[in-house]
Amino acid sequence: MDLNLASTKLRLIQLIMSINDDSTLLSLEKKVLEITKKPTEKELNVDLAVKPIRSNVSLEEIDKEQNYSPVSYLKFREDADKLAIEEPIEELLAMLTK
């Protein structure tokens, strides 16, 4: 290890050891974590998710690309009836705003 780097680390340790205030230490810890944090694969990279807007694309083309297959009303009703929801619609709607 470089002598200059070692002496810098030692000075930082001494400075940190001289701090007696909890909030100051917490702030310092937060800042150090921000500085030293390395991105992980689990973190989302917005730049990778953003795609340019395509012009002149039809709804049919989008459906085909996404393998969209519509559900018939009969199938929808069958699935909805299986849910057997007993609460009044007002109560269900109120749950959405909580």
Main attributes?
98 residues, mainly alpha
Please describe what this structure looks like.
There is one protein chain. The chain has 98 residues and is mainly alpha-helical. The chain has helices at residues 3-18, 22-36, 46-49, 59-65, 73-83, 89-96. It has a domain at 3-36. 0% of the residues are buried. The mean pLDDT is 86.
Q: How would you sum up this structure in a few lines?
A:
The chain has 98 residues and is an all-alpha fold. Helix content is 62%, strand content 0%. The chain starts with a helix and ends with a helix.
C-alpha termini separation = 57 Å
Series of H and E elements: HHHHHH
Broad shape? elongated
The helix-and-strand class reads mainly alpha
| Count of helix runs | 6
**Which parts are unreliable, with pLDDT below 50 for 5 consecutive residues or more?**
none
Number of strands: 0
Report the helical percentage.
55-70%
The main sheet comes to: none
Beta content comes to under 5%
Radius of gyration, taken over Cα atoms and rounded to an integer in Å? 29 Å
| Quaternary state of the chains | single chain
Average pLDDT confidence is 86
Give the secondary structure arrangement, pairings included.
Blueprint: H1 3-18, H2 22-36, H3 46-49, H4 59-65, H5 73-83, H6 89-96
